[in-house]
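pls design
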Protein backbone atom coordinates (compact mmCIF):
# COMPACT_ATOMS: atom_id res chain seq x y z
CA UNK A 1 0.00 0.00 0.00
CA UNK A 2 1.24 3.48 -0.81
CA UNK A 3 1.52 5.70 2.28
CA UNK A 4 2.05 9.48 2.18
CA UNK A 5 4.89 10.89 4.27
CA UNK A 6 4.05 10.75 7.96
CA UNK A 7 1.04 8.46 7.44
CA UNK A 8 2.57 4.97 7.48
CA UNK A 9 1.06 2.61 10.05
CA UNK A 10 4.25 2.90 12.15
CA UNK A 11 3.98 6.72 12.20
CA UNK A 12 0.26 6.90 12.93
CA UNK A 13 -1.81 6.99 16.09
CA UNK A 14 -4.45 4.72 14.55
CA UNK A 15 -4.30 1.99 11.88
CA UNK A 16 -7.02 -0.35 10.61
CA UNK A 17 -6.91 -3.13 8.02
CA UNK A 18 -9.88 -4.95 6.47
CA UNK A 19 -10.14 -7.26 3.48
CA UNK A 20 -12.66 -9.37 1.58
CA UNK A 21 -12.84 -11.53 -1.56
CA UNK A 22 -15.36 -10.40 -4.15
CA UNK A 23 -16.59 -12.61 -6.99
CA UNK A 24 -16.16 -9.90 -9.62
CA UNK A 25 -13.29 -8.58 -11.73
CA UNK A 26 -11.11 -5.79 -10.35
CA UNK A 27 -12.15 -3.46 -13.19
CA UNK A 28 -15.84 -3.67 -12.19
CA UNK A 29 -15.10 -3.22 -8.47
CA UNK A 30 -12.94 -0.20 -9.35
CA UNK A 31 -15.86 1.39 -11.22
CA UNK A 32 -17.99 1.22 -8.05
CA UNK A 33 -15.18 2.64 -5.89
CA UNK A 34 -14.45 5.65 -8.10
CA UNK A 35 -18.14 6.57 -8.50
CA UNK A 36 -17.94 8.36 -5.13
CA UNK A 37 -21.14 10.39 -5.35
CA UNK A 38 -23.03 7.06 -5.49
CA UNK A 39 -21.46 5.65 -2.30
CA UNK A 40 -24.37 6.74 -0.06
CA UNK A 41 -26.71 4.60 -2.17
CA UNK A 42 -24.96 1.39 -1.14
CA UNK A 43 -22.73 2.28 1.84
CA UNK A 44 -24.76 3.58 4.78
CA UNK A 45 -21.82 5.12 6.68
CA UNK A 46 -21.34 8.04 4.31
CA UNK A 47 -23.43 10.92 3.02
CA UNK A 48 -23.27 14.17 1.11
CA UNK A 49 -20.43 13.10 -1.20
CA UNK A 50 -19.61 15.86 -3.66
CA UNK A 51 -16.72 15.99 -6.10
CA UNK A 52 -15.52 19.58 -5.85
CA UNK A 53 -12.78 19.61 -8.50
CA UNK A 54 -10.75 17.45 -10.83
CA UNK A 55 -13.26 14.69 -11.34
CA UNK A 56 -16.82 13.82 -12.00
CA UNK A 57 -18.77 11.77 -12.21
CA UNK A 58 -15.84 9.56 -11.13
CA UNK A 59 -12.85 10.19 -8.92
CA UNK A 60 -9.56 10.74 -10.73
CA UNK A 61 -6.00 11.53 -9.75
CA UNK A 62 -5.94 14.87 -7.92
CA UNK A 63 -9.72 15.05 -7.56
CA UNK A 64 -10.99 16.86 -4.48
CA UNK A 65 -14.19 15.76 -2.76
CA UNK A 66 -16.17 16.56 0.37
CA UNK A 67 -18.20 14.07 2.34
CA UNK A 68 -19.51 12.94 5.69
CA UNK A 69 -18.52 9.68 7.33
CA UNK A 70 -18.35 8.44 10.92
CA UNK A 71 -20.27 11.60 11.88
CA UNK A 72 -17.62 14.01 10.61
CA UNK A 73 -17.30 16.34 7.62
CA UNK A 74 -14.14 15.70 5.62
CA UNK A 75 -12.24 17.24 2.74
CA UNK A 76 -10.33 14.65 0.68
CA UNK A 77 -7.92 14.60 -2.25
CA UNK A 78 -7.21 11.56 -4.40
CA UNK A 79 -3.47 10.90 -4.08
CA UNK A 80 -3.18 7.48 -5.72
CA UNK A 81 -5.10 6.41 -8.80
CA UNK A 82 -3.58 3.25 -10.30
CA UNK A 83 -6.39 1.61 -12.31
CA UNK A 84 -7.49 -1.04 -11.34
CA UNK A 85 -5.01 -1.81 -8.57
CA UNK A 86 -4.77 0.99 -6.01
CA UNK A 87 -6.82 4.00 -4.98
CA UNK A 88 -6.09 6.30 -2.06
CA UNK A 89 -7.10 9.65 -0.65
CA UNK A 90 -6.29 11.83 2.30
CA UNK A 91 -8.86 13.28 4.64
CA UNK A 92 -8.69 16.45 6.66
CA UNK A 93 -11.17 17.44 9.33
CA UNK A 94 -10.66 17.20 13.07
CA UNK A 95 -7.85 14.78 12.22
CA UNK A 96 -5.53 13.86 9.37
CA UNK A 97 -6.14 10.51 7.68
CA UNK A 98 -5.14 8.42 4.68
CA UNK A 99 -7.48 5.76 3.28
CA UNK A 100 -6.18 3.30 0.70
CA UNK A 101 -7.71 0.52 -1.36
CA UNK A 102 -5.80 -2.29 -3.06
CA UNK A 103 -7.42 -4.69 -5.53
CA UNK A 104 -5.67 -8.00 -6.22
CA UNK A 105 -7.15 -10.33 -8.83
CA UNK A 106 -7.07 -14.01 -7.91
CA UNK A 107 -8.62 -17.27 -9.10
CA UNK A 108 -11.88 -16.61 -7.21
CA UNK A 109 -12.36 -13.00 -8.28
CA UNK A 110 -10.66 -10.15 -6.48
CA UNK A 111 -9.18 -9.69 -3.03
CA UNK A 112 -9.97 -6.15 -1.85
CA UNK A 113 -7.91 -4.65 0.96
CA UNK A 114 -8.73 -1.34 2.60
CA UNK A 115 -6.47 0.30 5.15
CA UNK A 116 -6.57 3.61 6.96
CA UNK A 117 -4.21 5.55 9.18
CA UNK A 118 -5.05 8.59 11.29
CA UNK A 119 -3.09 11.23 13.17
CA UNK A 120 -4.17 14.07 15.41
CA UNK A 121 -5.53 14.58 18.87
CA UNK A 122 -8.72 12.52 18.35
CA UNK A 123 -7.03 9.28 17.26
CA UNK A 124 -4.27 9.78 19.86
CA UNK A 125 -6.70 10.19 22.75
CA UNK A 126 -9.66 8.14 21.52
CA UNK A 127 -7.95 5.45 19.43
CA UNK A 128 -9.18 2.75 21.82
CA UNK A 129 -12.76 3.84 20.98
CA UNK A 130 -12.33 4.74 17.30
CA UNK A 131 -10.46 1.64 16.14
CA UNK A 132 -13.30 -0.90 16.69
CA UNK A 133 -15.81 1.51 15.10
CA UNK A 134 -13.57 1.95 12.07
CA UNK A 135 -13.01 -1.80 11.72
CA UNK A 136 -16.79 -2.36 11.75
CA UNK A 137 -17.45 0.57 9.40
CA UNK A 138 -14.82 -0.53 6.89
CA UNK A 139 -16.06 -4.12 7.02
CA UNK A 140 -19.55 -2.82 6.28
CA UNK A 141 -18.09 -0.86 3.33
CA UNK A 142 -16.39 -4.00 1.99
CA UNK A 143 -19.48 -6.17 2.42
CA UNK A 144 -21.63 -3.53 0.75
CA UNK A 145 -19.10 -3.24 -2.07
CA UNK A 146 -19.17 -7.01 -2.52
CA UNK A 147 -22.97 -7.04 -2.68
CA UNK A 148 -23.17 -4.23 -5.20
CA UNK A 149 -20.20 -5.35 -7.35
CA UNK A 150 -21.50 -8.91 -7.56
CA UNK A 151 -24.83 -7.49 -8.82
CA UNK A 152 -23.20 -5.88 -11.89
CA UNK A 153 -21.76 -2.64 -13.24
CA UNK A 154 -22.65 0.81 -11.92
CA UNK A 155 -25.05 2.98 -13.93
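designed seq:
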Amino acid sequence: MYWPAGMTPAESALFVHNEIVIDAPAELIWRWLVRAERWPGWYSNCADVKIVSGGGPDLSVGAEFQWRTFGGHLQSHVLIFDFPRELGWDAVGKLRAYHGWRLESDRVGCRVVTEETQNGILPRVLGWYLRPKMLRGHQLWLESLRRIAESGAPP
